[in-house]
Amino acid sequence: MTKKQVLKHTVSYEEGLIKALKDPEEARAYLEVALDECEASGEIDGLLLVLRDVTQVQGGVSILTEHHRP
Q: What's the predicted TM-score (pTM) here?
């Protein structure tokens, strides 16, 4: 198999992540794992990146806050 053939059937990490995070259940699982890792390590950087990714894919901060208004 040539490199061109492999690339034709390969999805970049970012493309795959975006596709997965469009699914609310996948996004929730991604956030839960990040939160668990943050709690275990005491590091917040990874959690912040995950929050950024989910927020961008779900439509931004304004979209997320609209869904949770009383």
A: 0.71
